[in-house]
Amino acid sequence: MHGRGRGVAGPLGRGRLMPNKQNLRVVECKPQPCVVSVEGLSSSTTDVQLKSLLMSVGPIQSLQMLPQQRKAIAKFKEPAHALAFQQKFHRHMIDLSHINVALVVE
């Protein structure tokens, strides 16, 4: 018994995606950011605390603390680690302050 919408491939090849020009899309490969900006740090947050958070997702190349602006800039070795840090720690609370983590495109 052949029903409608059952996904049964008939002699005409229904139910299969046939490759044609309309299915092709051009995707630009932009360089992925390795740098994150951490803002809203508490004045009591140390570079050691922040470095341990950063290293929990992957190796970092550099960390620059800007205590007057209550922010830090960190560079990861891999873009995937920067993205993972942003997704894991954005709006995370450290030393009674919610930090904002953003990816920085160089």
UniProtKB/TrEMBL annotation:
InterPro entries: Nucleotide-bd_a/b_plait_sf, RBD_domain_sf, RBM33, RRM_dom. The keyword Heme does not apply. One of its GO terms (molecular function) is RNA binding. The keyword DNA repair does not apply. Keywords: Acetylation, Coiled coil, Cytoplasm, Isopeptide bond, Methylation, mRNA transport, Nucleus, Phosphoprotein, RNA-binding, Transport, Ubl conjugation. Pfam families: RRM_1. Residues 35-102 form the RRM domain. GO terms for biological process: mRNA transport. It is found in: Cytoplasm; Nucleus. GO terms for cellular component: cytoplasm; nucleus. RNA reader protein, which recognizes and binds specific RNAs, thereby regulating RNA metabolic processes, such as mRNA export, mRNA stability and/or translation. Binds a subset of intronless RNAs containing GC-rich elements, such as NORAD, and promotes their nuclear export by recruiting target RNAs to components of the NXF1-NXT1 RNA export machinery. Specifically recognizes and binds N6-methyladenosine (m6A)-containing mRNAs, promoting their demethylation by ALKBH5. Associates with the NXF1-NXT1 RNA export complex. Interacts with ALKBH5; facilitating ALKBH5 recruitment to m6A-containing transcripts. Interacts with SENP1; promoting ALKBH5 deSUMOylation and subsequent activation. This is RNA-binding protein 33. It comes from Sciurus vulgaris.
